[in-house]
Amino acid sequence: MSKRVLAVDDSKTMRDMVSFTLKGAGYEVVEAEDGRHALDTLGSGVIDLVITDINMPNMNGIELVKALRSNPTHRSTPILVLTTESDDSKKNEGRNAGATGWIVKPFEPEKLLKVVQKVCG
Questions:
Q1: Confidence (pLDDT) at 43
Q2: Which residues of 62-101 are buried (b: 16+ CB within 10 A; e: fewer)?
Q3: Which one, out of 23, 69, 88, 91, has a CA that is 20 to 30 A from the CA of 97?
Q4: Taking the CA atoms of the chain, what radius of gyration do you get in angstroms?
Q5: How far apart are CA 109 and CA 97, in angstroms?
């Protein structure tokens, strides 16, 4: 049974890159273009990992992390933030919201896979 990963990013190109990388390693990938769409998507089944951008319209990544952490179903779901933001204050905000890890874009596919395998198996 393959692990399901939700990739949340307002950039289709970035979602495609994440999808391509993870699908190549045997993961099932579901995509959403912002936090609100991600929450709707989560209603449709089990997700083993969420990878989210920070800067998105409608609901940003920090708001999404907080929403997931306040939901008993997703309280312990690993959440990786994949963003261009490398500022420590943003990282702390993400950590305080409940993010499991932080990856700065542009990412190296091997590095992303290593982190995903570490937090998700």
A1: 76
A2: bbbbbbbbeeeebeebbbbbbbebeeeebbebbeebbbbb
A3: 23
A4: 13
A5: 26
Q: What is the CATH number of the domain that holds 14?
A: 3.40.50.2300
Judge contact between 7 and 105, C-beta under 8 A. no
| pTM of the complete model | 0.95
Task: Compute the C-alpha angle 35/40/41, nearest 5°.
Answer: 90
pLDDT digits (tens, 9 = 90+) for 15-59: 999 999 999 999 999 999 999 999 999 876 789 999 999 999 999
Number of independent structural domains in the chain: 1
Token digits of residue 69 = 């952490």
Tell me which amino acid residue 103 is: I
